[in-house]
């Protein structure tokens, strides 16, 4: 395309695409082909050969020339059994839990309606709200990243949100909000509360047993953090009347035949995923202790498969992030200017060798 044509395209884009979308930056996806990847809460352990064989056999047996079936009955049965979804709860599957976040907002929010969540939290709550012309209200956590219940209740009274998102445990801070605080939000919320349990496999406690009986809440889960981030599968559980409405927005065939086949094969070996999650969780305290022993480093309590650490010594978070990057160790920084996260890095749990390499590198960098 020559320069004149490119300029013409740019003019057409500017005249056609929504100004608020043009002003956004796309969601940043970290990528690394080599080195140590501790930036995206992935499970560092691959699947054992026996499970990979089962997946390969399932994929071979799956016809790709037909659309997925209208219902996923076998997968529903498997998901219910594997993750303790109550019989009376309805289930909705998504292409990752990201898709389900988007569908909930589409189902509930007319333009200008409010989506509310504590901040900092998962950025897609905010982005997805904007994509769908909803207004996002973030309620700051306390300075040490606790749940500010009085501020949440006041914001709910003021803004009457259609949807409240509570990530439990929270990303990127790692804390699990107390059940009584969530209970108080449920009692105050005029609309729907989404309890996002993406990191539940690394925490104590779950709201899933109550998914069918909560009148104004649904429970969201993903397979991404326990070993299947590449597959894109999440699920939403709740009272059938809620799920039936949200299901109307679901693109047909959003869960493809390979995802369904692989999920069925993997869930027959769910004990492997559980064992890996247990191993990761068991390594969390040691890594937290080693990080906290470094000069100028504060580590926040985590119930998830990552730790948030603040680097307030001679080198700030961005400098430490860069120094780790040159050593091919990827962690997550927050360059977006969110004041609460200044100098914070989010470090996903990895293997014991990866933790040892990280701590050695940080000792060197901070020396
Ligand atoms: N919820 C929370 C709280 C998350 O942190 C994430 C991933 N960063 C997601 C949902 C989305 O996960 P996925 O789309 O991979 O299921």
What is the radius of gyration? Answer: 21 Å
Query: Whole-Å distance between the termini?
Result: 52 Å
Helical content stands at 40-55%
Assess the beta-strand content as a share of residues: 15-25%
User: What's the main sheet like?
Assistant: 7 strands, mixed
Shape: globular
Low-confidence stretches: none
Which ligands does the model contain, each kind named once? Answer: 4'-deoxy-4'-aminopyridoxal-5'-phosphate
Number of strands: 13
Query: What is the average of the pLDDT values?
Result: 96
Widest sheet: strand order?
2-8-7-6-5-3-4
Strand-pairing-aware structural class: alpha/beta
Characterize the quaternary organization of these chains. single chain
Task: Note the total helix count.
Answer: 13
Order of helices and strands: HHEHHEHEHEHEHEEEHHHEEHEEEH
Question: Could you explain the architecture of this structure?
Answer:
It catalyses: L-histidinol phosphate + 2-oxoglutarate = 3-(imidazol-4-yl)-2-oxopropyl phosphate + L-glutamate. The chain is of the alpha/beta class and 367 residues long. 41% of the residues lie in helices and 16% in strands. The protein is built from 13 helices and 13 strands. Strands 2-8-7-6-5-3-4 form a seven-stranded mixed sheet, sandwiched between helices. The protein has a four-stranded antiparallel sheet with strand order 9-10-13-12, with helices on one face. Strand 5 (163-167), helix 8 (179-188) and strand 6 form a beta-alpha-beta unit. Helix 3 (49-60) packs antiparallel against helix 10, helix 4 (73-83) runs parallel beside helix 10 and helix 7 runs parallel beside helix 8. Residues 96-98, 122, 167, 171, 196, 198, 222, 224, 229, 234 line the site of 4'-deoxy-4'-aminopyridoxal-5'-phosphate.
């Amino acid at each position: 395309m020559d320069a004149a044509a490119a300029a013409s395209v740019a003019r057409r884009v500017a005249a056609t695409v929504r100004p608020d979308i043009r002003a956004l930056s796309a969601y940043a996806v970290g990528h690394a082909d080599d080195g140590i990847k501790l930036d995206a809460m992935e499970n560092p352990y691959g699947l054992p050969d026996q499970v990979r064989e089962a997946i390969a056999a399932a994929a071979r047996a799956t016809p790709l020339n037909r659309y997925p079936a209208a219902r996923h009955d076998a997968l529903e049965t498997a998901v219910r059994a594997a993750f303790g979804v109550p019989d009376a709860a309805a289930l909705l599957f998504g292409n990752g839990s990201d898709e389900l976040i988007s569908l909930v907002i589409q189902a509930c929010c007319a333009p200008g309606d409010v989506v509310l969540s504590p901040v900092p939290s998962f950025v897609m709550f905010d982005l997805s709200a904007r994509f769908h012309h909803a207004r996002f209200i973030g309620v700051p956590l306390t300075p040490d990243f606790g749940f500010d219940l009085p501020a949440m209740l006041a914001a709910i009274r003021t803004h009457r949100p259609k949807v409240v998102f509570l990530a439990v445990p929270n990303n990127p801070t790692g804390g699990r909000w107390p059940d009584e605080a969530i209970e108080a939000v449920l009692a105050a919320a005029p609309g729907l509360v989404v309890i996002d349990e993406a990191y539940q496999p690394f925490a104590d406690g779950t709201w899933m047993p109550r998914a069918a009986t909560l009148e104004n809440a649904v429970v969201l889960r993903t397979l991404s953090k326990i070993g299947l981030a590449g597959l894109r599968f999440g699920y939403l559980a709740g009272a059938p009347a809620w799920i039936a409405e949200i299901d109307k927005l679901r693109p047909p065939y959003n869960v493809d035949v390979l995802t369904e086949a692989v999920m069925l094969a993997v869930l027959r070996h769910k004990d492997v995923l559980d064992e890996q999650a247990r191993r990761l969780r068991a390594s969390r305290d040691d890594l937290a202790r080693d990080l906290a022993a470094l000069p100028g480093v504060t580590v926040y309590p985590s119930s998830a498969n990552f730790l948030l650490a603040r680097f307030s010594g001679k080198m700030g978070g961005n400098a430490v992030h860069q120094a780790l990057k040159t050593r091919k160790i990827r962690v997550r920084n927050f360059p977006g200017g969110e004041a609460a996260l200044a100098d914070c890095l989010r470090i996903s749990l990895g293997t014991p060798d990866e933790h040892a390499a990280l701590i050695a590198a940080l000792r060197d960098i901070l020396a």
